[in-house]
Write a structure and sequence with these properties.
The chain is mostly beta strands and 209 residues long. 7% of the residues lie in helices and 52% in strands. A hairpin with a 5-residue loop joins strand 2 (69-77) and strand 3.
C-alpha cells in the first residue's frame, strides 16, 4: 500500500517507539483508550471478547498469508447494547508484509485520525491466532483445502475459533490475500510482533485508504 510505510521528516522512529504530533496533545483523552488497546494487542494480552467502541476502523496490508483460516458470522456489541454483524475471521499463524490501521475519532477540537503502521522495509509483521471482526474484506485471495458451508461449531483449523451450532462457517488449510482492505470493529492477536511500528495521531490526518 502506498502510505503504510510513510514517515514524516527525514528520519523515522526506532522500532517499537511512538511518535506523537503536537496537535494531538489536546485530543489525547479521546484516543488514549484506542492507543492502549493497540499496545496491549502487541503484547498478546487482549481477550477475544470485549465491548467494541462505536467506531469501526480500517485495516490494510499489501499481503497476508497464514497456515490456517476459520470464519463464521458473528455479532459484536458496543456498550450501549447495539449489535454490529461481522464476519469473524480467525487466522492461525499470520504473516503480513505490512499493516496499517486507522480510525476517525471525534474530539472537541475536530476529527482526529488515529493511525498505526508497521512492517514494510522493517520486516514482516507476525501474529498467532489473529482474530479480525470485519464487516467487509477486499483483496485477491488463494485458499488451500477450503471447506465452505461447514457448521461453525465444528471448525478446527484455528484454535479457539468456533461458532454456535447451525451457523454458517468456512475454513481453509492455508490462505494468501494480496491488496487487503477491510473495515473492522475489533482485532485481537497473540504474540503480535510489529516491526517498525509507527503511531500517528493528527487532526484531519490521512487514513489507510
Amino acid at each position: 500500500m502506498s502510505d503504510a510505510g510513510s514517515r514524516k521528516g527525514t528520519t523515522g522512529p526506532a522500532e517499537g517507539r511512538v511518535s506523537w504530533k503536537k496537535s494531538a496533545a489536546v485530543a489525547l483523552p479521546a484516543v488514549v483508550a484506542v492507543g492502549a488497546m493497540a499496545m496491549v494487542m502487541a503484547q498478546g494480552a487482549l481477550a477475544a471478547s470485549f465491548a467494541v467502541s462505536g467506531t469501526s476502523f480500517q485495516v490494510s496490508s499489501g499481503k497476508l498469508s497464514s497456515r490456517g483460516l476459520a470464519s463464521y458470522v458473528h455479532t459484536d456489541r458496543s456498550v450501549d447494547g447495539k449489535g454490529h454483524p461481522v464476519a469473524l475471521l480467525g487466522i492461525g499463524e499470520a504473516t503480513l508484509s505490512d499493516i496499517c490501521q486507522s480510525a476517525e475519532v471525534p474530539t472537541p477540537v475536530g476529527t482526529v485520525v488515529f493511525k498505526l503502521t508497521a512492517g514494510g522495509p522493517a520486516g514482516n509483521v507476525t501474529a498467532t491466532n489473529l482474530v479480525i471482526d470485519g464487516e467487509d474484506l477486499d483483496g485477491d485471495a488463494r485458499f488451500g483445502t477450503a471447506e465452505i458451508g461447514r457448521d461453525a461449531s465444528t471448525l478446527d483449523e484455528v484454535d479457539g475459533v468456533k461458532g454456535e451450532a447451525g451457523r454458517f462457517g468456512l475454513q481453509a488449510g492455508d490462505i494468501e490475500v494480496t491488496g487487503v482492505r477491510s473495515h473492522a470493529w475489533s482485532a485481537t492477536g497473540g504474540n503480535f510482533r510489529l516491526k517498525g511500528m509507527h503511531l500517528d495521531v493528527s487532526l484531519g490526518g490521512k487514513k489507510c485508504f
